[in-house]
């Protein structure tokens, strides 16, 4: 899944609503071309036993700034990332469909602005 972002500000955090996927990886890209760069390295959304049993497929995972790659290796100060590519996998149970319920990307707060409150 590739999604066009409305803004090219740095991403501060991600909220991902799972729908049966075991792993998720999120990449950043530029509409002008070039390779996608890792924003969120492959991360577990479900454990192997949960995946096999189909337990808890609708969880929401929150990935804050500490979980995201700060700056892709090939980025330059003028690079404007405006695309997200989401890669899902479910290697433990291939008989059930899987996907995402939603993904929300939050921009980093602008200078002088408070960061968004942490979810409860």
Automatic annotation (TrEMBL):
InterPro entries: Galactose-bd-like_sf, Xrcc1_N
Residue ranges of domain DNA-repair protein Xrcc1 N-terminal in the record: 2-104
N-terminal signal peptide: none
Tree of life domain: Eukaryota
Gene3D superfamilies xref list: Galactose-binding domain-like
GO cellular component, one term: nucleus
GO molecular function terms listed in the Swiss-Prot or TrEMBL record: damaged DNA binding
GO BP term, example: base-excision repair
Protein name: XRCC1 protein
Organism: Molothrus ater
